Every structure is written in C-alpha cells, then in structure tokens.
Hints:
The structure holds two protein chains of two kinds.
Chain A: H1 2-13, E1 20-37, E2 40-58, E3 61-68, H2 73-90, E4 108-111, H3 119-129, E5 134-150, E6 155-172, E7 175-183, H4 188-205, E8 215-221, H5 223-231, H6 240-244, H7 251-255, E9 266-269, E10 288-293, E11 296-297, H8 304-310, E12 325-328, H9 338-342, E13 345-358, E14 363-376, E15 379-383, E16 388-392, H10 393-399, E17 401-412, E18 424-437
Parallel strand pairs in A: 4-6, 8-13, 12-18
Antiparallel strand pairs in A: 1-2, 1-5, 2-3, 5-6, 6-7, 8-18, 9-10, 9-12, 10-11, 13-14, 14-15, 14-16, 17-18
Chain B: H1 2-12, E1 18-34, E2 37-38, E3 42-55, E4 58-64, H2 69-86, E5 103-107, H3 119-131, E6 139-157, E7 162-180, E8 183-190, E9 196-197, H4 201-205, H5 211-224, E10 231-237, H6 239-251, H7 256-259, E11 289-291, E12 314-318, E13 321-322, H8 329-335, E14 343-344, E15 353-354, E16 359-361, H9 368-373, E17 377-389, E18 395-407, E19 410-415, E20 419-423, H10 424-427, E21 431-434, E22 441-450, E23 455-463, E24 466-474
Parallel strand pairs in B: 5-7, 10-17
Antiparallel strand pairs in B: 1-2, 1-3, 1-6, 3-4, 6-7, 7-8, 7-9, 10-24, 11-12, 11-16, 12-13, 14-15, 17-18, 18-19, 18-20, 20-24, 21-24, 22-23
Helix pairs in contact in B: 1-2
Amino acid sequence: MKSDFYFLADELLGKVQGSEVLLLNLDGEDTDFVRFNQSRIRQPGHVHQRYLALELIDGQRHAGARLTLGGGRLDHGHAADVLELLRSRLTELPEDPHLLYNQEPSSTDIDGESCLPDVADVVEEVIAAGAGRDLVGLHSQGGIYRGFANSLGQRNWFATHSFNLDWSFYHEADKAVKCGYAGVEWSSDDFSTRVDTAAEQLDILAREPKTLPTGRYRVYLAPVALADYVGVLSWGGFGLKAHRTQQSSLQRMTTDGIKLKDSVTLTENTRDGVAPNFQAEGFLKPDGITLIDAGAHADCLVSPRSAREYDVETNGAGAGEGAACLDLAAGNMPTTEALQRLHTGVWINNLHYLNYSDRPACRITGMTRFACFWVEEGQIVAPINVMRFDETLYRVLGENLIDLTCEREMILDSGTYGGRGTGSARFPGALVEDFNFNL
Amino acid sequence: MTEMVARHFHDLSPSVDFCSLRLLSRQDEVIEVRQDILQPLETEEDVGAMITVVDGGGLGYAATSDLTATGLGDALQRATDWARQTAATAIIDHGKVERPVQVGEYSCAIKRPWCEIPLRERIDLVRAECARLKTDDRVVDWSASMWWIAEEQLYLTADGSRTQQRFEYLVPGLSVTANEGSETVSRRFGGFDLGRQGGAEILDDVHFFEQAPVITEEVLQLLAAPNCPTGTMDLLLDPDQMYLQIHESIGHPLELDRILGDERNYAGTSFVTLDMFGNYRYGSDLLNITFDPTIADEFATYCWDDEGVPADKQYIIRDGILERGLGGMTSQMRAAQPGVANSRACSWNRPPIDRMANLNLEPGSSTRQELIGAVENGIYMKRNLSWSIDDSRNKFQFGCEYGQMIRDGELAEVVKKPNYNGISATFWRSLKGVGGADLSEVLGTPFCGKGEPNQVIRVGHASPPALFADVDVFGGE
Lengths: 439, 477
C-alpha cells in the first residue's frame, strides 16, 4: 500500500510546474465488518476503499479535490486529470489570506505489521460467547492507511492493522451490558475474561429495575461515561477559532476566569494515542497539548488556518480543531474503592446522545444507558431505568467533583462513519456530587 | 464507466442464488464564505460499487473502489465467501426474502442546474449573502455556504433488474453569531435542516435571499433577550423544529430494524413493539404521518430503494393510530409486518438498512393566527439548536435558537435559550393544532446517523407548524 501511494505521489509531484506546491493525502482501509444480533449474524461484509486528496497551491491561491482510487495504473491518469482541473481552477479563485501549510519537510513512518487473526475464527469465538445469551454488535478488523506527500519532499506514512469488537449483552428491553475489545493482537483469553466480566453484570440486570425521581444525585461516572461527557468539548470547546469568536463552550474559563477543580488536567496526548501524528497540511502534531492545566484553561487546538487568521503558531490540529487523543489525568481514588466512596447514589457505566443544552454555560444534556445501577451503602442494589441528565461541566469537574480514580482506561474509537476511526481517549472514573437528573 | 461496470458484472455470471451490484458515483462541492473570505473550496468525486450475494440462505457483501473486472471479481468472491461462511448462523434465511425484478430510470426534476452556473458566479452568490450578515459590531462570526451534491446510482441483479437513478441536491446555509460580555448567541438558516432535490431554483423556493436581514435582526434580539422562563405551558413549534421532533420521536422509534434489535448496540432500541402496529394510539387525532417518496423536491425522494424495491406513499400513523413501521423487505419478512421501501445505504461502501427517507406530518387546517390565538400561556420556538433522546426514543430534550412568549393569544417578548423536554409515548397525544398546507415546509437533514458500520444519510421531513399542550419548558443557566 505504501509503495503504491508513493509511486502515485512521485508521478503526480513530478507534474508540478513553476512555483506550484502540491499536497497529497491518502486515506484508505481494508476492513471486514461483521454485524451481530441475537447472537447470530445480521450482515457480514468487506470494504476496500482508497481516497486521495490533492491540494494544488500557487502563492496564496489553492484548489483541492478528493477522489476515489481504484488501484493500479488507471488511478495515475485519473489523478493527473484532476490535477490539471485544479490548475485551471486556480485562476478562478481569489487569494486566500488564511492559507498555511508546512514548508519545513518532516517525514515520518509508522508502518504497523498485521498480527490479526483469521476473521472467521473471531466470528466463531463471538458466536460461541453469545450462545445462550443475546449478543448484538459489530466486529471490525483490517488495515487502516494514511499517507502524506508534498512537492517539498515531505513523506509521512501511518498504517495500523487492528480490530475493534464493540458489543452488548442484552437482558431484555433496554437493559444491557456494553462491552468492547480492541487492539492489534487478538487474545482468546482476554476476550473470554471480558465476556465473563460482562456476564456477571448481566446477572444484576435481571433484578427489578429502579425508577429514580428527578433531582440531584451523587454519581460515579465510569471512564467511558466520563470520556463521552468531556468528549462533547471537541464540538466547539477546544478550538482557537471557537474561542476567538466567543463561541467556545469553555469561553467562561477565559472571559470570566471560571476554574475547574485543581485535579483536572486535560491533554491532547498524541504520543500515547493511536492516531496519525501528521495532518492534512503536513504539520506534525506535538506529543502533547495541555488544554486544561490544574483546573485552569491552558492552550487551544490551533489549525493552520486559525494560526494564520489569528497570527499564532499552529499546533497541528485538523481543520475542525477537535481532539483525537484526549487524556484526563488520574486522581487519587482507587477504582476498587469507588463503590464504597459512592456509598449511596448512581453508578453510571455509559451515557448516550449527549449535546449542549446551553453552550455558553457548558451545560450538557444526555441519557444514562446500558448497565447503570442504584447503589446503597456501597452495594449495587438494582439497575436503574434510564434517566436524562442536564448538567454543566463547570460543576461536574468543578465544585461538585469529589475525586478521580487512580486508574485510567484506554478507550479506542469504535466509530466507522466514512471509515474506521483512529481516535482514542484515556480517562479515569469520577465521583461527582449533586449530578442533575431532570427527566 | 457505468456501462463498463455493468458489462463486468454480467460477465462475472456468478453461480449463486442471488447477486446484485450497486454502483454509486457522487460529486460534491462545498462553497463557504466566512467573514467575507472564501474558505477552501471542497470538491469530491466518490465512485465505488457494492456486490451483494445470497447463497444457501446466507448473505454477504463486498464493497470496492476498484471497478476493474479483477476488482469486481475479487469483490464477488469475498461476498460469496461471506454468504457461505455465515449461512448457518445468519439471523434469517436470506434466500426466502422475495426480491422484485425491476427495470427503469428516474431523474429528479432540475430547473436550473447548479453546476451549470459558472464557478465564479457560484462563489459570488455565496459571497454576496455572507456580506449581508455583518450588520453590527456585536456580530463576531458570520458565514454563508452552499453544498451541492450530484449522485447517480445503478442497481443490477443477475436475474434481470436494472434501475438507474440520478439525483441532485442543494443545501444552502447562513449563520450569524453575536456576542456581548460572556453571552454568545447564534441564528442560522439552513445548513443542516434544509436541503432539497433540484437545482438553483431551490434558493427562490426557500426564500434564501430574504433570510440574511431576518437572522441578523433576530440574533441581536436574542442578545438582548431574557432567558426562557421555566414552566409547563403550550408550545408552538415552527417547521424548522418540527422536522427534528418528527425525526427523533416518530421516525427512529418506528424503524423496524431498531424494533428487531439490530441497532441496540449503537443507535438504540425502540419503545415501540411489533404488537403495537394497527392499534397503538401514538398521538391525537390530528397526527397523520406519511412515508412519502413522491414529493419532487424533498431530500429523500426516489423511485426504488437501494435493494431495488419500488417506493410509494404510505400512511404510517393515521388519525393518531400507528399503522405500519419503517422497514424494507428484509425487515418486513423478519417482523411479519408490512413496511415501506426504505432500505437505503449512505454510499457504495455501506450495506442498506432501514432508514426514514421522507417522513412527513400531513397538514391540518389551522392558520398561523389560529394556532397562536389558541394559546393563553405558552411559547413559540423555532430553529433547532440542541437535540437528545434516549436509546428507546422516549425521553427527549430539544433546544431552539429563538423563542417568543405567547400570552392571551398574541406573540409577546423574545426569549433566548428555549428548551423543552418530554416523552415520545405521550407527547404526540398532546398535539392540539396543526397548520394548513400553505404553512407546510419541505425540510430535512443530510446528517441522520445510524448503523453498524456507521452511516450518515439524507432524510426529508415536511411539516407545518404544530401546537402542543402542557409541555415542560426551561431556559439556560
């Protein structure tokens, strides 16, 4: 794959004329997708896809296009035609005062080898794990490829061969245990352990569910739930453009001096993530960007366009200025003590369908989902029927945050919109007072 | 290319029970002007094919961007392998699904093709609208955009089906944001709630060129407005909020694949069960919901779904009673229920699943004045801003950009950050007024997400304004 891309890139880059600069980005994958329902197979299939994005620059004018690659020599002619189209289009476009691309070539190469099992063997194990149970979900596995090349001599390559089994065991109706197993090397023992752990929680779901009255509750947000809650900030919270146009959900941290708890340090941690460390304009991402430092707002994610617009340095963010590898620092509470420290309240394993209900106040609404439990005196009593919450981050990670766990969970993105995600998050769990359930 | 791929497919002559090819080619162009500066012009050509095989009761698919004879041959082999490997563990015997043989063509109606307007004029049009948005120093961000999509889909089966459909879509958008102190508010037009099939004539149809002064005035009203009060009151929703209310709390819960459990690990399940069809009171007598793929300019109008099933208008809810679900031929067989032709895929690289397509609230008879006049204490809200609903599609909460109190039958002061919540199973029973056909607007969203692997697809929703009784309303912090 890499050699095919560089072969194509060399040919296209050889067509650059005069003062032109050409940027090329490859995005591809070969994935087996197997969808399960009721411990049987709903839809199995395979996707082979390759996309090439070309950006032709001349001075401050630029034009871009993205096309599908089929593989082979036909692509060369097609891409060359598109390049010619972009060249003709340049004359019709105005100069772009916010254009910025990396002009200091820095090449990298991450070329993971495949240790993946035969997908048919995995499917057999999953079906076996679902025997006598109601298993529903998706198994994805295969290669993911990202490449960058420009006419300034820069080359970047990222390939990973990974799997992501994202599944649930259902008790009945909406009562289920959500599970995940992702990585690059499948271990039947690891999978079996996860199945057994989930099965234990499934037994609790058989108890009579409790319906909570609306109100404020002491809650424990498990790492996945906390990552989902804080992850909403990627939607217009971290970016420089959102801050400078006063639209960031964290705006009041800068305009009103609002602080979170001192124990809250949030980082875009590219070094420990699993995403490519380069972006579309060729900039490399630093190992880490501190977004919130000991409760205080720190840096923003800065795309090349924002860097030029607001006259600051870019830190390698993509155009959307969202996080790809969020990392919340650990706290002091051992996870094994979380139930006791919660004492009486709600144990929340998963959240669902989060959205801002008041962006300037960073108030986020959403639902509890899957296995969430009512806890009394440090003991799980019953599953709860789903509850809507509506609560501001300034309270959840501010005055109402009691503690974060010492241990953190690495959560690999299971998203597959357009293609398989390469994002990740590393989060502790959080014990929170007075969490607002409003429906 | 289309005929070459068709020849390759027929040359493959697969020896399986059923085999189809779905070839999709799509062109996109996004023109956005932000703060009077043209943003990077985004264009895309996406072409690929999916081969689906049914053999021995199993089903498998393989999607590829390699459209050579070799590439399609590889895809056929992979799809066949998947079908055979999983036949014994498939959720149904796919060989028993009746697949119609259809031949025909469909092209959406286009009066003024967007792509035939010279590029510079297209940019100038968007630039001109952007320039009308910065009307006050408190306006801190503003933009105008136009997203054009052209799609052509060929569906072939080894047993003789050949349908070909061509569509063009236009999604106009305007956005203006104002700030004062630590308060920031926005007003938008289109973007993610307004897209239609057709060409540049859509801009006149939706009064695009009249919107800039409206939203710039309203964003400043919002900046000076008090927070929406808290209370239980009547709620009048404009079509640009109704579309999402219909989408989230009627459309999704009635998708048969959700009811059958396919989506439980991701998008969720449904509070609706199969035994409710034919008898369940979903809403008041005023609630009439149709699946209607026949409205020429609506987003998801088509002649055949992505499994080649002919599409026609069907009542989903009539006079408040639930009649049928939203499920294609596979779901219909699994559920032993009638459905609709809504098996759709977002692109060539995702398999068809049950989607909403066009799901509309049929007009009532009320005038706008009658709807407002019927409210003693209430609120009017327009343009969706925030949306969230539980995985059974019951407990919802929505926020709108713009609110206006209604007292004693008349519109009163503007309020900001209006939110409301409720429960789908009871909310629609409080429907007490529906606007007439002249108030109905054809809207929809290009961003309906669902499925494993994930898919985001275009859906259409036409609705007049509607009035609900006794809704819990609240504001911001």
